Amino acid sequence: MAYVAAMAIIGYAAALEQFHPTELLAYARLAEDHGFGGVMAADHFQPWVPQQGHNAFVWSWMAALGAVTKTLTFGPGVTCASFRYHPAVVAQAAATQGTMTPGRFWLGIGTGEALNEHVTAPAWPEPHVRLKMMQEAISIIQKLLTGEVTKHDDGKFFKMERVRLWTVPDAHHPVPVYVATAGPIAAKWAGTNCDGFITPGASLDKLRMLLGRFGEGARAAGKDPAKMPKLLQLHMSWARTYDEALANALDQWPNGGMPFPKGDIRTPEDFAAIAKIVGPENYKNRMIISPDMDEHRDQIQQFVDLGFDEIHVHNVGRNQKEFIEVFSRQVIAKLKL
């Protein structure tokens, strides 16, 4: 059974592409102390833009996170099990983490982005091919997480000899598998085949559609979508003044102002070149940039009311300590969860 929060929780999006891993551990511990209930950790081989400056290995970081925190649930947001990692390696890593932090760890899987995956991918497939690869990878992972002997010798994209995982979580605390998607086909597939789903912030109409398709898939498989975790990752920019919040967004998160698919962009330098065309107007209806925590709280409340179980917030600036402390008092404490 997948982990389900008794009420919606607010999570902290840990941007490993922006911060030194030790610094980010301190922020995650601070977030736990200030009422955040979970962490969504970015799995990056490269930062989006050079000025972010980091690319710590998410699996090492999550092991440390589990050891230095007490109650936070957490997982990668998200890992691609198709290129840099073979699905069997992801299954082994997830099983180990799930064993060490029972009931706290979840596995988020996505189709990947060239920025992170082309470093080992011999060719970069079209999106529909990447979707099929993800689906096949998840089937391998799910079989291995049972701890039973399994094989995969008839796959289109992957091969695996007969093998089993010897270290797996106990039956009472299995590792749930969540699919990251912003499209209806994958959302429905996730409802049928997985334990939950993850999606980025979008308009209420789009999110309502995705939740509906996820629910369709779940019910078709005889599952209750109300009992399946639905996670949202929300990018935002808060600072004491609007000018500072805008400057943080333009410097650290120009990709938030790029209204087009970014999965095929290969390097931080390419992102930096594209970022030169991003201006304040490009963030409209894509990301709230505001010093007013009430504005951020109102947006988050809408997502809670829509039915999301976890909302992981990413303040894109480097002002993390101040953000966590202020956000705790002015948003988490006042939300109706």
Write up what this structure looks like:
This protein has 337 residues and is of the alpha/beta class. The chain has one domain: TIM Barrel. The protein is built from eleven helices and twelve strands. It has helices spanning 21-33, 58-68, 87-100, 114-117, 127-145, 184-193, 204-220, 242-252, 268-275, 293-306, 320-330, and strands at residues 9-14, 38-41, 73-76, 79-80, 107-110, 150-152, 160-163, 177-180, 196-200, 230-237, 288-289, 310-315. The strands form two sheets. Strands 1, 2, 3, 4, 5, 8, 9, 10, 11 and 12 form a ten-stranded parallel sheet that branches. Strands 6-7 form a two-stranded antiparallel ribbon. The longest helix is centred in the middle third of the chain and has 19 residues, at 127-145. The radius of gyration is 19 Å and the shape is globular.
